[in-house]
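Write out the 3D structure for:
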Amino acid sequence: MSDQRRAPMIEAIGLSKYFGDFAAILDVSFEVYQGEVVAFLGPNGAGKSTTMKLLTGYLAPSAGEARIAGHNMSSDRLAGSAVLGYLPENGPLYPDMTPRSLLQFFAKARGLSPARARQRIDAVVDLCALGSVIGKPIGKLSRGYCQRVGMAQVLLHEPDVLILDEPTAGLDPNQIHEVRETIRKLGRSKTILLSTHILQEVEAMASRVLFINEGRMVYDGAFSKLTSDGVPLQEHFRRLSELVVSG
């Protein structure tokens, strides 16, 4: 079925966000459909994290709408959050808790039954390879393990939509490979929007690229189309980083 006939799972509809007189993003619009893994790119300060926070309902837009699975994240955030998993960059974790106690806490907060919670905790611990540290304080874990704990928490309630901000930050090459494989596998049935500074991540995981610069969208298209001229992705990144949409 074409995208035009499917209901989008992530929608940015004319999103703008002002902090005082500063416009972090202006009139950002795009849609992401079920089964898509879409990379969200742009230079530092371009507006990626702000856009993701608007999509998740963490921030309220100054103008426009953010929708997850059809739910307006300003007026219907609880329903949208029920089908959403969000991994922020450097997401906060409770350092005195263990991965097990943290997952138990979030399972209860999500309303999972005790039996379902046990099942899902076992599943995400296995998926994120946390068995060896499940009983250690999070504050004693490496950056890579903390990132995996965050990913496990995101996947705990089996969300249909995943928004991941720098999901491989702080991981070693083996862990990066594991996360790539996990995201590819999840992307067969879920909708995934991921922000990354690592261009190899785009080639490895995403079929489509969104590029934002100075708070405005400057590219929305297939990864294969972006690189069809044989020019390296790094060069396209540089060129897109120089584009400014007037208006």
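The radius of gyration is 18 Å.
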